[in-house]
Design brief:
It is a single chain. The relative contact order is 0.12. Strands 4-3-5-6-7-8-9 form a seven-stranded mixed beta sheet. A five-stranded mixed beta sheet has the order 11-10-12-14-13. Strands 1-2 form a two-stranded antiparallel ribbon. The chain is globular and about 50 Å long. The chain folds into two domains: 132 residues, Fructose-1,6-Bisphosphatase, Chain A, domain 1, CATH 3.30.540; 91 residues, 3-Layer(aba) Sandwich (D-Maltodextrin-Binding Protein, domain 2). It is of the alpha+beta class.
């Protein structure tokens, strides 16, 4: 297909490739250290988070100011680049292969211009074209095409499931299988490949700015304390009812 990689995407992709090389090599013990630095997103940053952030800032700062989950606002510019340097950082620190990078560029007019999410563990790369349509490629090449989802996915994705046992029980009672892989932006990027993607918890822009842009054509429900993405509108609405019923101990019944 005729998709031209923009200068912003080129810099972002090249930076993701450098990060993958960094994390696939022999890792220094300092990358696993957490020295008490609380990032802008509210989590304790590791040496790995900050090392990845530095690589991305070097690549992306010419394109605008950066709002990073780790260091907050950096630099100046008409555009704002919302950055999660290491989505699923606990997975990365545990060497569990489900972690990546989330990047979104928002123009001076407040409109999302470009969005990219990559899975550093397997090289999957997701972005949107000029019309906002999702494309899938790889860090191993520069070819992109529309994502092709399986016809009958058997699982959903439920991020932060561990914090919501009542919802977990209700999903189980309804036979709605799920996995909790632990990286929100990545799970949004893969949402069209599964039955549904559910997140329950505080909404942070770093988790969602790029990932939600990749969900064009899906049913998307965004509330203050939960997000639902599904291919089937009925599944999305059923999940909304379930979450609203169970999240507060059944107080809505």
């Amino acid at each position: 297909m005729n998709f031209e990689i923009t200068p912003f995407y080129r810099s972002a992709i090249d930076a993701c490739r450098k990060v993958r090389v960094l994390l696939s090599g022999e890792l220094s013990a300092t990358l696993f250290d957490k020295n008490g630095f609380i990032g802008a997103g509210g989590d304790l940053s590791s040496g790995m988070d900050l090392a990845v952030e530095r690589l991305l800032i070097d690549a992306l700062s010419p394109f605008g100011s950066i709002d990073s989950e780790e260091s907050g606002r950096i630099g100046e510019g008409e555009s704002t680049i919302v950055l999660d340097p290491l989505d699923g950082s606990s997975n990365a620190l545990s060497r569990f292969p489900y972690y990546g990078i989330s990047i979104a560029r928002i123009g001076a007019d407040g409109v999302l211009k470009e969005a990219l999410v990559c899975n550093l563990a397997n090289g999957d790369l997701f972005l949107i074209d000029e019309a906002g349509n999702p494309l899938k490629g790889s860090l191993d090449h520069d070819r992109f095409k529309p994502p092709v989802a399986p016809p009958n996915p058997e699982i959903g994705l439920f991020e932060k499931a561990y914090a919501h046992p009542r919802i977990v029980a209700a999903l189980d009672q309804r036979g709605l299988k799920f996995r909790n892989p632990g990286a929100v932006a990545l799970s949004l990027a893969y949402a069209r490949y599964v039955n549904y993607m559910l997140f329950v918890g505080p909404f942070r822009i770093y988790d969602f700015a790029a990932g939600l842009a990749l969900c064009k054509g899906l049913e998307v429900i965004v509330e203050e304390d939960f997000v639902i993405v599904a291919r089937d509108p009925k599944v999305a609405e059923d999940l909304r009812a379930l979450v609203e019923e169970e999240r507060d101990g059944g107080s809505h019944s």
